[in-house]
Amino acid sequence: MTVRFVLLGALMTVGQCALAQQRIVMPAALKAGDTIAIVSPSSTPDSATVAKGCQTLREWGYVPVVGPHAMNSYHGFAGTADERAADMLWALRDSTVKAILCSRGGDGAVQVLTRIPLEEFRNHPKWVMGFSDATALHSAEVSAGVMSIHCSMCDGISMRGERDSVNAIHRRLLRGELPTYKIPAHPLNQKGQAEGILVGGNLSVFCGLAGSAYDFLNRADEGLILFFEDTGEQMSKVDRMLHLLEIRGILSRVKGIVVGHFSKYKSPESGFADMYEMLHEYLRHYDIPVCYDFPVGHHSGYNYPFVEGCRVSLNVGQGGGGILQFLRP
Q: Hey, which residues are catalytic here?
């Protein structure tokens, strides 16, 4: 893969409907010395992992501050739902905090959403960073009209090292640069060109928000490029989630799809050799570009950063390779 960069320049209330119709804004770029809050909206993190993540942020030139409840433990979660929501609200409202990094995924981020009005995300537009269970926060951010970064968390950024290509992209994003990804060919890729707002992440997490005020798929009529990945979900379960996207009319309205990594599932199942073959059985019926096996999500080697809510161009060529370009707002 090669990467190049361009410099950046459910039922809803009336207020929530107004938010969903607003233009999606991009948080301000970070500067050396800016503060990044470490929060744990999901499961309890390992203290050593958080310490390593903080050290990596310092090496990047930032000042990490760990949330008051980020290391708590309550039935496997990093504190009660109220405590985890309190940390998120602190990080959003504190003017000295310029970005927010989730310590880890796991379970429980959806529990904090009902305790954080969408207006809080809109009124305090900051980069919220993470993946997996943090998809719930990305969905809330985009629903509120704010971009966020689907990317590695404390473990990932510390494991990959200073000169790693994924970390380099992440650092440039925080400084205000957008990437263009060139994706290798895959035999199941569907050629075509499309432009739209990029949303997605962990399939089971965002499907769990279906129709709520925090569901970024409510923006489907604006023209979306959808990406998804998952781990530990069997093919039959993913099949049901695709049915949900179909009967909601989402698959018939998206402009293009990027399929990330699926891991820890039983294969073969239901006569399909692997997850991609099963997905292709659905997606081949849609006349849109589809790019398989993008290294995003629970990937054993790479989790390339995506800017949720950003307009992108997806071009899958005759030879099967793809180009995903993030566009200036």
A: 132, 229, 298
CB distance 69 to 83 below 8 Å: yes
Signed CA dihedral, 196, 202, 208, 212: sign only: negative
Return the closest-CA partner of residue 329 out of 28, 26, 90: 26
Walk along the chain (329 residues) in steps of 10 and give the mean pLDDT of each run: 49 52 91 98 97 96 98 97 98 98 96 96 98 98 98 90 83 97 94 98 97 97 97 95 96 97 89 94 95 88 93 90 93
Give every CB contact of residue 160 below 8 A, 6+ residues apart in sequence: 152, 166, 167
**Cβ atoms of 196 and 312 closer than 8 Å:** yes
Residue bearing tokens 């073959």:
277
- Does the pTM surpass 0.85? The reply is yes
Question: Which candidate, 276, 307, 311, 312, places its Cα nearest to that of 291?
Answer: 276
The helix, strand and coil proportions of the chain, stated in percent and rounded to the nearest 5, come to 35, 25, 40
